[in-house]
Amino acid sequence: MQKGHQRPMAHSKSPGTLTPGSWGNAFGSLSHSFSNICAFSLGSQDSSWCTVERKERQFSRHGSTAEIASLVVSNVACSPNYLGEDLASFIRDELSSKHSASRASLCSTVSGELVGSKRASVAEATALIVSELNPTTQVDLRRQATVAGRVVVFLTAGYEGKRFIFEIARKMNLRVVIIDSQESWSQQLLEEGVIEKFIPMEITDMDLSYLPCVEAIQGVKENFGQLDGIVSFAELAQQLVAKLCDHFQVPGNSLQSVNAARDKYQSRDAWETAGLPTPKHYLIKEEEHIPLAGEHVGFPAVIKPIFGAASIGVVRVDSMEQLHTQVMKVRQQLLSARVINGALQEGIIGDDEGCDAAAWIDLSIMMEQYLDGPEVDVDIIMADGESVYEAMADNWPTIEPYFNETGSNCPSILPQYQQDELRDLAVASVKALGLTMGVFHVEGKYTTHGPRIIEVNCRMGGGPVHLINQLVWGVDLVVEQMILSCGGEPRERSPNMEPLCNIAEYSMN
User: Fold this and answer.
1) How far is CA 190 from CA 166, 179, 470, in A?
2) What are residue 457's DSSP bridge partners?
3) What is the pTM for the complete model shown?
């Protein structure tokens, strides 16, 4: 980080006494969700009623944004349909009129209406509440306006839980085209007017899909009269996106840098070359490499596919015998894995759903030192080769040996010096890979030997990452990615951002 640049984020000054708010599911309709969210107000934060003005209207705000959002959506189990302006108006009116009402009374009323309407998912309700209680600043509205009307092509829509991404793009007045398989759920977005065009195409590996995509996108450029961006929020599409961005000369990262991020072995070589602290590692391509890897790295250790995703095939090993057994098991897992909606998923041998993962990824496995200590996620926004935003969340201890996630909290409550070192290393790791623009999700640990990076994901993190950044820091990672991908005005570094709230979420395994 250059001297004189202030960090665009803040840390909770002292955890102090956290007052738990009500539990509420904030990640989709309850019947489809395995995560729950809990909001806490900061001990030092004023909890008195206050108002913020937006377009000459007054909106009540009690405590933290997330407290109210959590209360409003608690016990709401609704179908994931669009809210509709009538319901949106109802919630806005409730928020503006209940100045003297208790939070429980206010949220009970709104929740009752949501339950009765059957028109809102929990995530949609939360997003609406957040947008009303934490209005977009005039600066951010102006930046969004710089890309209004621009044409952007999405490669694969991902699973249906990513619907919010396209709704956000529509609210930004972007003209969206999706290229995805004929069976994709996202076709319905065309009928609903959320996107302008859907191009049915089975996207497999980069080499086979490149020329058909070039032809399809060239057609989009000719039909729309312009092409401003190509993007994907799906992990396995990032290399194809990079190659297409280069072909059409729209904003994006180089294919070389994305390759280095996607290949965990290449990532570590790049970090070693840059002089960054890197755990010992060894590439296992053949069975005879197994004993060599064990001797070089030692135990305990972790094995993982170099092109993996979703923690598939990530296992702790504590002996040479375990190493050999688990390498063979992971290879079988990868051979049966499927690519569905642009994401790698565990498969069942003989299952025909999706595409064969072996056609998309290298099946080589990397062994590396086991990293002890607390794990964190660092969400980073890069523009013109520099970081303009970093936000850290603590990951709770995973369930070993398969590292299943259990939950997280944001902001981080690690000691300040550990947060600083992890952030600096996360940004340096992104730069060492040659990544210069976009939203990145970096995973790391603060070990007994200092900070270490686990991996850099060259796209926005999944699960609750988008919502947590929006609730805690007031930053919409989808908006920021779309602005950058369409050549708009990047955000400025904001000095000493204070968190709007503290949040914890847990996962059920």
Assistant:
1) 11, 12, 27
2) 441
3) 0.79
Distance (Å, whole) CA 122 – CA 456: 30
Convert the pLDDT of each residue in 126-164 to its tens digit: 556 666 666 788 999 999 999 999 999 999 999 888 999
Taking the C-alpha atoms of residue 487 and residue 483, their distance in angstroms, rounded to an integer, is 6
| Alpha carbon 501 to chain centroid, angstroms | 19
**Residue indicated by tokens 């600043």:** 137
Which pair of tokens denotes residue 219?
Answer: 């057609």
* Dist CA 401 CA 299 (whole Å): 13
What pLDDT is recorded for position 129?
63
- Alpha carbons 70 and 88: distance in angstroms, whole number: 17
Alpha-carbon distance 431 to 387, whole Å?
Answer: 9
Q: Is 469 helix (H, G, I), strand (E, B) or coil?
A: helix
- Detail the DSSP E strand segments found in 114-223: 151-155, 175-180, 197-200
Q: At what angle do helices 122-133 and 65-73 cross, to 10 degrees?
A: 150
d(CA 461, CA 408): 13
Rounding to the nearest 10 degrees, give the CA dihedral for residues 248, 252, 254, 259.
-110
Q: Each residue of 444-463: pLDDT tens digit?
A: 999 999 999 999 999 999 98
